[in-house]
Amino acid sequence: MVYHQYSFLLALSLALVSHAYFINIDASSEECFFEEVVKDTSLTLTFEVAEGGFLDIDVNVMGPHGESLWSKERESNGKFTIKANTDGAYKYCFGNKMSSMTPKMVMFTMETGEKHVILEDEGKDGDESHNKLAQAVRSLSEALLGVKHEQEFMEVRERVHRSINDNTNSRVVLWAFFEALVLVAMVLGQIYYLKRFFEVRRVI
């Protein structure tokens, strides 16, 4: 029983290897990060631009030998998953070189899977039910992690949309105020013109 509980906690902890970050990328610059990955493990990069400009960013993922594994330009969000073929440091970069003035804020998560750990007693007693339980726990943990990340990205999208709505509302209010000023100016101009017109008629 103790062995089963230990395996349950071990599977849960191995399935929840993930890192989430918010970074600011200045105009005409690039930020790169490295992740040490063991062969035959999965590497998943998920990102979304939260603020800045047209909400676009350049993304490039490279292997340990500098080879390009995935590259996108002017993306607002995306997800990339690979299985590491070799051990080493995998590099992923976010570039804002297309912008000359506007910085960007990017939220991204880097999920690193783990190779299945075979315990000392596993496989000797043929405990298939335990293996199925451990696999179910790993699947459940991955699903929960996916839900957590989706909630985080939904919060980012909600903040982006709220910012867009606030900007739109501000522009509508300013435009309405400008129209009101133009209307008042036109009314005053017409009153002044009519007043001058009747004053001229009276003199004649």
User: Going across the major beta sheet, what is the strand order?
Assistant: 1-8-3-6
Rounded to the nearest angstrom, the radius of gyration is: 30 Å
Terminus-to-terminus distance: 114 Å
The class by helix and strand makeup works out as: alpha+beta
For the residues shown, what is the average pLDDT?
79
Order of helices and strands: HEEEEEEEEH
Tell me, what's the shape?
A: elongated
Low-confidence stretches: 1-16, 118-123
Percentage of β-strand residues: 25-35%
Q: Biggest β-sheet, characterized?
A: 4 strands, antiparallel
Q: Considering DSSP H and I runs of 4 or more, what fraction of the residues is helical?
A: 40-55%
Number of helices: 2
Number of strands: 8
